[in-house]
Design goal:
Bound molecules: S-adenosylmethionine
Low-confidence stretches: none
Largest sheet: 5 strands, mixed
Distance between the termini: 30 Å
CATH superfamily: Vaccinia Virus protein VP39
CATH class: Alpha Beta
Number of strands: 7
Number of helices: 4
Strand content: 15-25%
Order of helices and strands: HEHEEEHEEHE
Length: 165
């Protein structure tokens, strides 16, 4: 889910070996076969769509086009399961996700993401990291009603669940 390649650029700057994939280049992360010849990774970075907040393309395989929230979570679980297979023994998987609203209700996407990851055999490897959206549109907007705007995303750093849990 490398999108425009921010992670690729950061790795290049830091001199870290990098492999990037995305549906827009034909790689469907929900399919187990996509991962067959990839080898293993010390670190996997995932930045999935926040369900339907932004539609990235017209493909039914895109997580932004999942018809229901349950279908989105189910697809995310498949991605977690596939990534787990290619994670090195002490490898970490980080996922960046923010919340969104659907039909006037908050979806709780960061919480659903953690639940989905736990169901696929991950546990938190670190406290959650909050990415504050300094430059986001909503940080400058003036709202007519009083409510708490969402100004952050959550980064969850995960590792395989230890066997004694
Ligand atoms: C939030 S964007 C990632 C943005 C990225 N961090 C960047 O630097 O541009 C989510 C990405 O997930 C990709 N995606 C959605 N469903 C996917 C799937 N099933 N397999 C692989 N990539 C998928 C989309 O094509 C989109 O590029």
């Amino acid at each position: 889910m490398e999108g425009g390649g921010t992670c690729r650029d950061v790795c290049k700057e830091l001199g870290i070996a990098y492999e990037g994939r995305d549906l827009r280049a034909g790689f469907d992360a929900t399919r187990s076969e996509s991962f067959d010849a990839l080898g293993s990774f010390d670190f996997v970075w995932l930045h999935p769509p926040y369900w339907q907040m932004i539609r990235y393309n017209a493909s039914s395989r895109c997580l932004s086009n999942a018809p229901t929230l349950a279908a989105f979570v189910s697809a995310l679980r498949s991605v977690f399961a596939n990534c787990r297979r290619v994670l090195a023994e002490h490898g970490k998987l980080a996922v960046l996700i923010g919340d969104g609203k659907h039909e006037g209700r908050y979806l709780g996407l960061p919480f659903r993401t953690l639940n989905a990851a736990e169901a696929e055999g991950y546990q938190l490897a670190a406290p959650e990291i909050i990415r504050f959206g300094h430059g986001s549109t909503s940080s400058k907007r003036v709202y007519s009603t009083s409510f708490i705007p969402r100004l952050h995303d959550v980064c969850l750093v995960l590792e395989r669940t230890s066997s004694n849990r």
